[in-house]
Amino acid sequence: MKVIVDLGNIWEALSAIGTIGAVVVSLYLSRKDSINKVRVSTQAALLMGSLDKKVYTNVTVTNVGRQEVVIAQVGVTHSKCAKVKFAFMKSIGIFNNTLPTYLKTGEFNNFGCVEEELKQQFIQNRLSRKKAYGYAIDSLGKVYFSKQFLLFDE
Fold this sequence. Notes:
This protein is α+β, with helices and mostly antiparallel strands. The protein has 2 helices and 9 strands; from the N terminus they run H-E-E-E-E-E-E-H-E-E-E.
């Protein structure tokens, strides 16, 4: 008894599967470059050499993607899940930035507010949490958050 195995069609099937895999990978890589990527960071700022002894909460928005991003809103919030009760940043003092702002690849912009004013906004909105997040919203509505930080210590 002789067994004859014909592998002619198997190689064509494997070639088709490899071609489909290559197309899927190339589509994924091309889509990856067109996604907006924004980094948001927060820190306290105290002006050196100034008579103004106010502490500012600074939110830095950086475009780390490969295409221009339009930032429509910047602020501080008590929770990443909150849809309301945002404390909005204002252009005060050293931070004279206007919204919306256009950020090209690698550019950043600083937004800030006096920390005491943010604390008052949190108290007025009955937000008792001392920890907060900086956030930025782009023109497409996507929200980017910073790491959690301590807004006030009492």
